[in-house]
Specification:
Layout lengths: L49 E6 H4 L9 H4 L5 E4 L9 E4 L14 E4 L2 E2 L17 E8 L13 E6 L7 E8 L5 E11 L2 E12 L8 E15 L2 E16 L6 H6 L6 H5 L3 E16 L4 E17 L13 E21 L2 E24 L2 E25 L4 E18 L10 E17 L4 E12 L3 H4 L15 E14 L2 E13 L2 E3 L1 H6 L4 E3 L2 E14 L4 E16 L19 E9 L6 E10 L16 E10 L1 E3 L2 E10 L7 E4 L9 E3 L4 E11 L2
Parallel strand pairs: 4-7
Antiparallel strand pairs: 1-6, 2-3, 4-5, 6-7, 8-9, 8-34, 9-10, 10-11, 11-12, 12-13, 13-14, 14-15, 15-16, 16-17, 17-18, 18-19, 19-20, 20-21, 21-22, 22-25, 23-24, 25-26, 26-27, 27-28, 28-29, 29-31, 30-31, 31-34, 32-33
């Protein structure tokens, strides 16, 4: 008998609004779901973690505006690439965490306006970010980020902006090669106590590679209501519809050399494609109870439907089908409390709360009869139930020293009810994971412009349901797969002076039970996973921003990362200890030189992006993706006439027409590891805005 997933229950906190105190008295913001440093204007020199902020201007610098990777490449420690395959979403990793993900995002927690875009099992979908109304994005790395849930690599959190005071209607349309077109319509305005910010957008493309045609429609709404001087309410609604997105699959090294734009023959034979429909809503409530206390609450819920046609029939006894259908309901909440007070005569800020998140999905599998749905091979209901409790505090030890400490206890339970009993075997089962993660950070303000910090923390990642989906042998979920646990350390320096901004971080993460692709995946095509012994990631992140006279500015982000297995014994007896983690470059760099003549409305910039060699497999024996450096150019001009504003823009990516591998499918089946990046590409567009005054 099929279960029905429960509706979203509980209340979710977004501890992002400080209690009413003087600026001199207030310490660091200690939000729960919105995380340390979520205040837009907060001085982050006292935060004992690495923080990168992307403003609305940086998110929309003559870009298509559809993919988070367009701007995240600016962030040190992150590798964010467009797969040129909208069926599998972007590939994002942070300090090496998440590089194994063949689709979606693993190891990095995604949040928008306090609502988690990462499901309770740890799988996140970056396509859900509302980039059209984004005010800014915060990217946080370091040991203290492990206080916020099931992830080890850090947090990417987006903040939707309020609509402008005067009613404003805007259209922005961009065109590119291969039938690329994206257009959005956005409205914002203040109507009494109600603020409205809404947008709809459509993306169409035939794709750089064969068999990669895509249509994606999005709609987003933010309603903000100032109830009174002490409380506010925000409603957020998001929708995504992406029907029949073609999947060209990865290529072998030989196929890349023959024709880098081709799709795999199996993608044509089995008509590989993916349909996604996603709808969700969230409600934030904030109430200042007194000068020292604040209560925040939020509830969210939604539904997600996925149908995917894979490149094999899937008719074997334990295959589970070559057509996958997932019908998911999800929701949850968090209730939090925040106070500015004193303890032992020292100013202290406290945050505490409890969370509940739920994910339930009906999973069915069918035989792929050359692009048509055939006989049923799988039928089960899977559920994830997650509860957390946390306590975080920041102590002002003296005017220069600040101590941040916290602890979070998490309990995650996976449950599967098997309704496919034709094979005579009931594969129902459940497993529960429990973990308590402490973290500690210390910051020292050496001068008003420079600070130093150090931090320690412990984190964990549970397997996702997709990673549990198949056993190496037999049917049912792979409950032998265990969470990976990490111990993280970081020291850093921050400098802020006039037009100069410098961030430097040195970090190390030691991981036990690293989750890796199983050997059977490369032989059978089934996505099986296993636990490796131990691994270590250590490296350096540097970001430098410098302004000059006459509107010239320069920016550099560089990462040195050594990520390798310390202990890794495969089931076949091979020893992979000492091998480099696949998909992780040792060096990554982004640089930009821009010119914006004051008072002209014109801006142009030259960008450089570089990644070093990346291995495709755990054993490092397959042909590696060679290192590369590419250069991009962009320009835009903004001109206002009365109530109208027009902004034409253009960009050229890969000016040197370099051939390189953009992303890797780590340990992919059939040695199809490689997803080629496009050659020289152009983009032109125009934004048109009218404001009623």
């Amino acid at each position: 008998m099929k279960k029905i997933a429960p509706c979203a229950i509980g209340i979710l906190s977004s501890l992002s609004f400080p209690a009413a105190t003087n600026a001199q008295e207030r310490q660091l913001s200690l939000p729960a779901q919105l995380v340390l440093g979520s205040e837009a204007q907060e001085d982050d020199t006292r935060l004992p973690l690495a923080r990168s902020t992307l403003s609305a201007d940086e998110l929309e610098t003559s870009n298509l505006g559809a993919n988070l990777s367009e701007s995240l490449q600016r962030v040190p420690g992150l590798v964010a690439v467009n797969r040129q395959n909208y069926a599998q979403d972007l590939q994002i990793s942070s300090r090496g965490f998440g590089a194994r993900a063949a689709f979606g995002v693993r190891g990095v927690r995604l949040v928008q306006d306090g609502i988690p875009l990462t499901m309770p099992d740890g799988q996140g979908q970056p396509a859900l970010f509302d980039l059209d109304s984004m005010q800014r994005i915060e990217v946080l790395r370091g040991p203290l980020t492990t206080l916020y849930g099931n992830a080890s690599g850090g947090i990417i959190q987006g903040f939707t902006g309020e609509g402008s005071f005067y009613p404003t209607l805007e259209n922005r349309t961009a065109f590119g090669p291969d039938g690329l077109r994206r257009s959005r319509l956005r409205y914002g305005g203040q109507h009494g106590d109600l603020n409205i910010n809404a947008n709809v957008a459509r993306l169409d493309t035939d794709g750089y590679r064969d068999h990669s045609k895509t249509q994606r429609d999005t709609a987003n709404l933010r309603l903000g209501w100032d109830i009174d001087d002490a409380s506010s309410l925000t409603l957020l609604i998001n929708s995504l519809d992406q029907p029949e997105t073609q999947d060209p699959l990865g290529l072998t090294a030989q196929q890349v050399r023959e024709d880098r734009r081709q799709s795999v023959a199996g993608s044509q034979t089995f008509n590989t494609r993916k349909t996604v429909r996603h709808n969700q809503a969230g409600l934030n409530y904030t109430r200042r109870l007194s000068n020292d206390d604040q209560l925040t609450a939020m509830i969210y819920g939604g539904e997600r439907y996925v149908q995917q046609y894979l490149a094999f029939p899937g008719g074997g006894q334990f295959s589970g089908g070559g057509v996958i259908e997932l019908d998911r309901n999800f929701g949850g909440g968090e209730l939090g409390w925040q106070r500015n007070t004193e303890a032992f005569g020292l100013p202290v800020e406290l945050a505490a709360g409890v969370t509940y998140d739920y994910q339930g999905e009906q999973r069915e599998g069918f035989v792929n009869e050359t692009g048509r749905k055939g006989a049923q091979q799988r039928d089960e209901f899977n559920a994830v139930d997650s509860q957390d409790a946390y306590l975080i505090s920041t102590w002002q030890l003296d005017p220069r020293w600040t101590l941040t400490a916290g602890v979070r206890h998490s309990r995650v339970e996976f449950d599967s009810e098997d309704d496919y009993l034709i094979d005579g075997q009931d594969d129902s089962g459940s497993v529960r994971y429990s973990q308590t993660n402490p973290a500690l950070g210390l910051s020292y303000q050496w001068t008003p412009a420079m600070s130093f910090y150090a931090a320690l923390g412990q984190g964990f990642e549970t397997p996702t349901f997709q990673e549990l989906a198949y056993q190496p042998q037999g049917s049912g979920l792979n409950f032998d797969l265990t969470p990976s646990k990490s111990r993280n350390a970081e020291i850093g320096m921050k400098y802020r002076q006039d037009q100069t901004r410098i961030d430097l971080a040195l970090f190390e993460s030691r991981v036990k039970d690293e989750i890796v692709a199983g050997e059977e995946q490369q032989l059978t095509g089934r996505g099986t996973f296993a636990n490796a012994g131990r691994s270590t990631r250590r490296g350096i992140e540097l970001a430098v921003e410098q302004g000059f006279d006459h509107g010239i500015s320069a920016y550099l982000a560089y990462t040195l990362l050594d990520a390798r297995f310390d202990e890794y014994q495969r089931a076949d007896g091979s020893d992979l200890s000492g091998r480099t983690l696949p998909g992780v470059p040792r060096h990554s760099l982004f640089a930009e030189l821009s010119w914006q003549p004051p008072g002209t409305g014109f801006i142009t910039a030259l960008e450089a992006q570089s990644l070093s060699q990346r291995y495709a497999t755990d054993d490092n024996t397959a042909e590696a993706a060679s290192g590369y450096a590419v250069f991009n150019w962009r320009a835009a001009y903004t001109h206002a006439v009365g109530n109208w504003e027009v902004e034409p823009f253009a960009r050229i990516d890969n000016l040197g027409d370099r051939e390189y591998i953009g992303s890797l499918i780590v340990n992919g089946a059939g040695a199809r590891y490689y997803e080629p990046a496009p050659d020289r590409q152009w983009l032109v567009g125009v934004g048109l805005q009218y404001q009623w005054r």
